[in-house]
Design brief:
Number of helices: 10
Structural class: alpha/beta
CATH class of the largest domain: Mainly Beta
Number of strands: 16
Helix content: 25-40%
Strand content: 25-35%
Shape: globular
Distance between the termini: 95 Å
Radius of gyration: 31 Å
Order of helices and strands: HEEHEEEEEEEEHEEHHEHEHHEHEH
């Protein structure tokens, strides 16, 4: 037996390449790629290039930071913050830890999340899904959204458009109907967010607070966006905007809300076949009675009715005359017709009906028609 050091050293095994395809250009391509990266002042691994250490992810992080700045307002204080039409164009948006600010989102969005804001005023343009705010205090909102959700907030005022029933939890707020707010692009943004202006159950809350209640009150019906927001700050921040652009009538009807219905009180009902017909009818009534719709328009809803529903509500003859009886867009409007103002509203409604094929009007004993029509609402609005 010999010692280990006396053993003969074995030769390394030879690699047989006879049956393998060898890429003879691999080193050449690698060298060319490294030269290209060096010339661009970048490397894949962050090594030294042109005498500098290059961060290979710097460009990506800069893009992400730019996106975050565009799609969020965070950690701001005492500022006027604006996103104008076309800047967001249906994207999501986040707001967090803002104090004593005035925030105007003059565009439509996908969703908005708001956290930990204090003493701040918000306008939020049409949001295609949910606006959800948490841990906010002493804030004022004018907003339009498909879903309204809030939690752990207090002393909140909001003028609200919401396609579905709003939801609150551990929150105290005062609410009114979205009103007194319009600008050149608002109606178009409602359409882009697929929010029908005639469907706004803003008073019909789901309150999931564990104890007590109700945890919401109603703002005076005369409250408008100008009472909650400081438009002078908006015009100072964006001089290209003019006050005249914000004086147009709101595309959302100003309804009284179902909480104002008097048990046994007289009501009237109008079904308008199409949004344009509904707008014409409401404008004609407002002109005739010389009073704002907020004094007598209780609630509205836009529905798509199939043939069976149309026949049940309007009868076979009326349903047959509709443009598309299989899927007809109908706007239902419920009116309070009590007292002297109610008498004027009833007379104005009667004046609309002669030879008008776009309207179906019930001015007396309308309870059944109202119940039948509004019972056709989808579950999300019930």
């Amino acid at each position: 037996m010999g010692c280990l050091s006396s053993k003969e050293e074995k030769e390394p095994p030879k690699i047989d390449t006879t049956n393998k395809i060898v890429d003879v250009f691999a080193e050449r391509r690698a060298a060319a790629e490294k030269k290209r990266l060096d010339e661009e002042g970048n490397t894949e691994s962050g090594e030294e290039a042109n005498g500098k250490i290059v961060d290979p992810f710097a460009a990506k992080r800069a893009t992400e930071k730019k996106d975050e700045d565009l799609y969020s307002f965070k950690n701001k204080e005492g500022m006027t913050l604006v996103r104008q039409e076309g800047e967001l164009n249906g994207s999501g948006f986040n707001i967090a830890n803002c104090k004593n600010c005035d925030i105007f989102i003059l565009d439509h969005t996908a969703q908005i999340l708001i956290d930990d804001c204090k003493n701040t005023r918000f306008f939020l343009g049409p949001c295609a899904s949910s606006v959800f705010f948490r841990n906010c205090t002493n804030c004022k909102f004018v907003m339009a959204c498909r879903q309204f959700r809030t939690r752990d907030s207090k002393n909140i005022d909001v003028l609200l458009y919401c396609k579905t029933r709003p939801t609150i939890e551990s929150t105290t707020l005062r609410v009114g109907c979205f009103s007194g707010m319009s600008y050149f692009a608002l109606a178009k943004q409602f359409e882009a967010a697929q929010l029908p202006v005639w469907t706004n159950p803003w008073t019909e809350f789901h309150d999931f607070t564990s104890a007590g209640g109700p945890h919401y009150e109603y703002l005076p019906p005369t409250t408008t966006a100008k009472d909650l927001l400081d438009f002078d700050k908006l015009f100072a921040a964006i001089p290209s905007l003019s006050p005249e652009e914000f004086d147009a009538p709101s595309p959302v009807p100003h309804t009284m809300g179902v909480h104002t219905i008097q048990p046994g009180g007289p009501r009237a009902f109008v079904a308008a076949f199409g949004g344009d017909a509904a707008r014409k009818a409401l404008d004609a009534i407002t002109t005739a009675v010389q009073e704002s719709e907020r004094e007598y328009l209780i609630q509205t809803v836009e529905l798509k009715l199939n043939r069976m529903q149309s026949q049940k509500l309007f009868g076979k003859a009326k349903a047959k005359a509709l443009p598309d009886p299989k899927s007809t867009v109908v706007v239902g409007m419920e009116f309070a017709v009590e007292g002297p103002l109610g008498d004027r509203v009833r007379e104005a409604l009667k004046s609309l009906t002669p030879d008008n094929t776009e309207l179906w009007v019930v001015t007396d004993d309308a309870d059944k028609a109202i119940e039948n029509f509004f019972s056709c609402r989808p579950d999300e609005q019930m």
